[in-house]
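Our consortium's second objective concerns turning raw sequence data into structural hypotheses that experimental partners can test. To show how far this objective has progressed, the report includes one record in full. It was chosen at random from the queue rather than selected for favorable results. The single chain below, 103 residues long, was entered without modification.
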Amino acid sequence: MEFNSENYNEIQAACKNKEVVEFTVEKSATAFSNSKAPDSWTAYPPTYLPPEGYAQVFAYAGNDKKGALTRLEIVVHLDGGRILYKAAEENAVSLKVTWPSIA
């Protein structure tokens, strides 16, 4: 599944329901826009911030694909989820949202 405006609500709902979901996003919308994504599934937790820090990230993330992905990554992190990243096509990264705290 591709991370885009057509699939965003489905991805967001899966995360809200703490379901495992995998999707692909263009590399430029990720933290790997200027570097190589890992070749195998690797977790990269976001920076730990005080609550007001996360609020600022939400406020300034922007309304583009990168901003939407950043907000989703933070929500997953704050809800106890984990996101794994892996290189996909040349200009894409695969993300897998998992929920380690759920047996």
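The partners drew two points from this record. Residues 87 and 97 are 15 Å apart (CA to CA). The first strand starts at residue 21 and ends at 26. Both points have been shared with the crystallography group to help prioritize constructs.
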